[in-house]
Amino acid sequence: MQTILNFLNDLKQHNNRDWFQANKQRYEEAKNKFFDLTDFLIAKIKEFDSSVDVNSAKECAFRIYKDVRFSKDKTPYKTNMGAYISKGGRKSAYAGYYIHTEPGASFAGGGMYCPQTDVLKTLRQSIAEDATPLRSILSKPAFKTVFPELSGETLKTAPRGFDKNHPDIDLLRFKSYTVIKYLSDKELVSEQFLDNTLAVFKTQKPFNDYLNACIS
What we know:
By secondary structure, this protein is α+β, with helices and mostly antiparallel strands. The protein has one domain (about 1-215). About 45% of the residues lie in helices and about 10% in strands. A four-stranded antiparallel sheet has the order 1-2-3-4. A hairpin with a 4-residue loop joins β2 and β3 (about 105-110). The longest helix has 25 residues, at about 25-50. The radius of gyration is 18 Å and the shape is globular.
């Protein structure tokens, strides 16, 4: 993991094509290590979540190259490496497990990030009809210790088609349904990193199961 962090830290300081090309070998080494990590996580996640049907990091890892066409930030490369492990891989509509490596800002977690409009509406309808299953998952001590709260942006008011006075409006306002466990650089390079990350994902599984059941 230190190889990955070192490369990303230097890339953050020199985010331009000339530096990247001059350090292409370092990038390939860091990418390969991240792919090895992702392959390991895929195999271990499939042991406790049979819905995951991917087999390799190539199906889950995101490209380091940015699309800057509509961005004010024109730096060409992401300064992180991430992979989304789920049924269908990184472009899946299903809830999955996400690993994000970035110096000083790494995390493990997942769920459904910015789902398509129809998927989000279906999720909200399920929650509006009966939020008890979701609240039960979120409130369990073992879950709450790892994930104190849902993460992500919320609407300032009720989503279209939902009553602003609905008793579960706090849950209905979310634009994404995700949870995050932040990881320090020290945790990333520790011998316990893989075991601890898998423990995070195992804790998260009931949350993913609930979300996927809502849209199935």
